[in-house]
Amino acid sequence: MKGPFTYHGNELELFAEAKHWKRYIYNQMAAYLGDEVLEVGAGYGGSTVHLARKQADRWVCLEPDPELAAQLRLRLDRGECPSFCEVRIGTLDGLAADDRFDSLIYLDVMEHIEDDIAEFCAAVHHLKPGGHLVVLAPAHQWLFTPFDRTLGHFRRYDRKTMRQFTNGDVELVRLDYLDSVGFMASLANRLVLKQPMPTRRQVRIWDRLMVPFSRVLDRILFHRVGKSVLGVWKRNGRT
Questions:
Q1: How do residues 188-203 score in pLDDT, each as one tens digit?
Q2: 6 domain residue, yes or no
Q3: Residue 67 located in a structural domain
């Protein structure tokens, strides 16, 4: 991802209060978060406030949109994010070549990047040996809707397309679908309602009622069904 960049869409605002979903994501990612974390495309911190719960030496929020980064700085000033968080405006291109982290996370970000393979390779370069790269993205290209296009999504992913990121520098350690109940709701919308964009009320219902059920059903289904796909890679070498 290369700057300058301005975010278009209302995805961040629409899902800002999806607290059950963000707690679920945190529980799935916690084991891969090291002492130094880089959150790429942090927005105004809608996920950061939920994910930066584990004490870290440093949590860098990298955001290419200056306006969103300014909003995130305000949240930090108000104490809504832990003191170990810091905000940087820009993209991976602006990092020093030797600036490396235990974990890099892309939460609903990679689908916004046209050359995602190049972005992944650049991200691996900023991982310490033994560190983890975590990518969460919307699943299934056949569920791609005008809502995706409005938000600036280039694609959706599945296990096959996620596997294409794997290269000789990293080992794929996890590849799972999340939110099986949300997947069924999306499928129903695709086939019956054909609604281009969810309402805030629908997002609240999904988060408060469907996500808790997904947390149980996902395990029963061995994470083979879901509206989102989670990939985790480990950088080869020793720490």
A1: 866 654 566 678 888 8
A2: no
A3: yes
